[in-house]
Specification:
Cytochrome Bc1 Complex, Chain D, domain 2, DUF3243, Uncharacterised_YmfJ, globular, DUF3243 domain-containing protein, single chain, 86 residues, mainly alpha, 0% strand, YmfJ/YflH_sf
Amino acid sequence: MSVLDNFDSWKDFLGDRLHQAKGQGMEQHAVSELAYEIGGYLANTVDAKNEQEAVLRDLWNVADEKEQHAMANIMVKMVQNEGTQS
């Protein structure tokens, strides 16, 4: 099963990667920019595997760049207490 198949698994995966990045000294601005880039990649190239991902993709696609950055920051905030390292 892929981490994309289940939204809770996806959040845990993102949370683990966030903790790993911060543990290696990545600054918040860099984390936010990376989240923005990943959000664009996922919205444009990956099929949604569940309803939550479909909603996020649809919201991303109608948002302007400023709103997409805000969404990326919100996703980072949402997963900061997720994952096996939380």
